[in-house]
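Before relying on records like the one below, remember that each one covers exactly one chain. Contacts with other chains, cofactors or solvent are not represented anywhere in the record.
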Amino acid sequence: MSGRALLMWDEAVTKYDFGASHPMDPVRLALTMGLVRAYGLDRAVDVVSAKPAGDSTLRLVHREDYVAAVRAASENPRAADQSYGLGTMDDPAFAGMHEASALIAGQSVGAAEAVWRGEAEHAVNFAGGLHHAMPGAASGFCIYNDASLAIARLLELGAERVAYVDVDVHHGDGVQAAFWDDPRVLTISLHEHPRMLFPGTGWPEETGGPGPAEGSAANVALPAGTGDEGWLRAFHAVVPELLADFRPQVLVTQHGADTHFEDPLAHLAVSLDAQRLVQEACHELVHECVEGGRWVALGGGGYAVVDVVPRSWTHLVGIAGHAPVDPESVIPASWRDEVYARTRQLGPGRMTDGRTPGWRSWEDGYDPADRLDQAVLATRRAVFPLRGMLT
């Protein structure tokens, strides 16, 4: 296995653009790549591009009629068929939508192929992580589900155990749905409680389809307002044990930055520093639990497009490339100039929110009256016995 790390990048992914009033502003991708370059991380990783996902690849997850509907909306956005979730407020149709979406999907599929074949140990596609798209419908700013497509391609190549860990503030519903009945895929999602936030799924009782897939889905539904300590406690109380039990051949992770306290679309209170710690934890778990250290790391949500997203995903690139960025470092002035030129906003000055998060280990006991501990315990009681594990 090569120790190389890849960064999947093609400038054309910034054409995934729902319009000026939409919260998913593609400037977040351009600014992330700018910050990666400002820190010289493009020399620590190999920056490569993969071809767009073709129809045969897209059909690993998506229905043929849906792909045709996306193509049609891409050619004539005004005629988008809303029965497929296209042309809606969340997923407005735009010219070139199919091409931009297929390109992002292709980067994630290419990342999966590279780590499976041993061409790289880790691969990052921060433009990916579009985890809400369903087989036959767009949903939640997501047209093609690149995470599911990457996993499906790994299975096609012969993988027998693939784990997916999603720490976006929203439930990874599209990926869970794609592999609901497949025991070869373990999906784990930590997200804000479905009573409070789109898509309204991700209850702890959602544990996989009947039969051999029971216990192949785990969902931690976090109370609104959960901050660093609770978020890290929940992650470490669930994810490491499940991965150690499953022993995946590849780990696919989704690192939506919308758990942050500045994010305008959700209600968690997580800092950049805690996000970085979870990224580091995923990297450590890859080398502890995953055959060959195979890791595909994706982006996801994140709508504080200047202050949060570029810093969070630049940390991710550095960690995957074994060249972590010092959180106390002063951000290069060249990048802050780029921020102002693109957005007329002032960029952040350091790679930290100034937090030093800690958390209590689950092994030290839990408080049955604490809402965070109740959420963790609900997940452990729902999933662990199905896998023959102690709660």
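The mean pLDDT is 98.
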